[in-house]
TrEMBL record:
HAMAP family according to UniProt: Shikimate_kinase
Keywords noted in UniProt: Amino-acid biosynthesis, Aromatic amino acid biosynthesis, ATP-binding, Kinase, Nucleotide-binding, Transferase
Catalytic activity: shikimate + ATP = 3-phosphoshikimate + ADP + H(+)
The species this protein was found in: Aegilops tauschii subsp. strangulata
One biological process term in Gene Ontology: amino acid biosynthetic process
Entry annotated with the keyword Iron-sulfur: no
InterPro entries associated with the record: P-loop_NTPase, Shikimate/glucono_kinase, Shikimate_kinase/TSH1, Shikimate_kinase_CS
UniProt family annotation: Belongs to the shikimate kinase family.
Protein name: shikimate kinase
Length: 180
């Protein structure tokens, strides 16, 4: 399908297809949007932006976790939408979105100007990755004590249940199962 074509074509074949449009990576926490986005940007010669980082800069608070704590998730979501709106008027960007960006329909009106790609990774792999790096930077998964894998897996399962239909709105889906 579209996704595999995109993943395996050479940069010089992909660039005319993109025609300067932005690429938005969507998917659950830990799916690799930030990591993979930087690589794709490098390969295509596009600029890379992470919407979480842009929200931190515009709010003036250096971490998403602290923004959730000092303000609220709703405040973070409002700023996330503003960041996506501002990016949507630009060209030749790879944008790593936050895992929850897909839940607001207004964000799709911005992302639809470009190509949206869902990085679809099994929940057990997500929980394993997140437990390995710790949950401190991901407020929705953070916990003071207990088994980080079990807690992350349970919370990711609940979030995926709410979000899977939204992720499926993406133009393309890349299943990263084989790489985990
Ligand atoms: N394709 C991959 N295979 C294995 N580990 C990965 C892969 N992509 C990302 N990771 C690891 O998973 C963790 C989360 O990646 P990150 O890019 O921050 O995800 P996201 O931005 O989607 O939340 C990081 O520790 C990263 O090194
Ligand atoms: O899934 C989510 O709701 C969130 C994902 C995070 O980004 P990553 O997907 O890059 O971890 C960040 O935006 C915030 O902690 C909320
Ligand atoms: Mg990220």
């Amino acid at each position: 399908d579209n996704a595999m074509v995109f993943a395996f074509q050479k940069a010089e074949d992909v660039l005319p297809y993109l025609n300067d449009r932005c690429v938005y990576l969507v998917g659950m926490m830990g799916s690799g949007k930030t990591t993979v986005g930087k690589i794709i940007a490098e390969v295509l010669g596009y600029s890379f932006f992470d919407s979480d980082k842009l929200v931190e800069q515009s709010v003036g608070i250096p971490s998403v976790a602290e923004i959730f704590q000092v303000h609220s998730e709703a405040f973070f979501r409002d700023n996330e939408s503003e960041v996506l709106r501002d990016l949507s008027s630009m060209h030749r960007l790879i944008v790593a979105t936050g895992g929850g960006a897909v839940i607001r329909p207004i964000n799709w009106s911005y992302m639809r100007k470009g190509l949206t790609i869902w990085l679809d990774v099994p929940l057990d792999a997500l929980a394993r990755r997140i437990a390995a790096v710790g949950t401190a930077s991901r407020p929705l998964l953070h916990q003071e004590s207990g088994d980080p894998y079990a807690k992350a897996y349970a919370k990711l399962t609940a979030l995926f249940e709410q979000r899977m239909d939204s992720y499926a709105n993406a133009d393309a889906r890349v299943s990263l199962e084989i790489f985990t």
